[in-house]
Amino acid sequence: MFTGLIEEPERRQHCREWLLSHIDFATRQSSHLRSSRGNNRAHELQKLRRSDRVNLERALTADGQLGGHFVQGHIDCVSRVVAFEKKGPDFRLEVELPAGFAQYVARKGSIALNGISLTVADVFPKSFAVWIIPYTRSHTNLNGARAGDLLNVEFDILAKYVERVLAVRGKK
Known about the structure:
3 helices, Elongation Factor Tu (Ef-tu), domain 3
């Protein structure tokens, strides 16, 4: 379980197979973990290049402070950036909303984009928008995002549980 509050971006190391990096924040030593085939189909790992930045954060401990929202790291879909524009000091990021996931997005609700915990600002029929503060933009891999880029999207787990409970109750 994670909060979606990214600690720092890190460069991906080149390897022939899909790997997830583990960084010991105290010693700055890295190790590599293999990603399961299910993970590879769900997100954009296969498109990462040696110089690409990935977002890192420590797992949430049972006694830890929840500063973002519950982020599991299970990617629900990949969506295209519609627009990413500077508006005053902040940035407005609009992302396509696949029809099969629209029920999980609500204005002022939580969403994770590339693992970053964000608040939904607006919901449209085929997209949603979030606001990115300068700190988040400069300290995550959203720094280089542009219209047309693909983002990993994880919808709020609480919305998924509510949907499941209602579905099961409806079958009784």
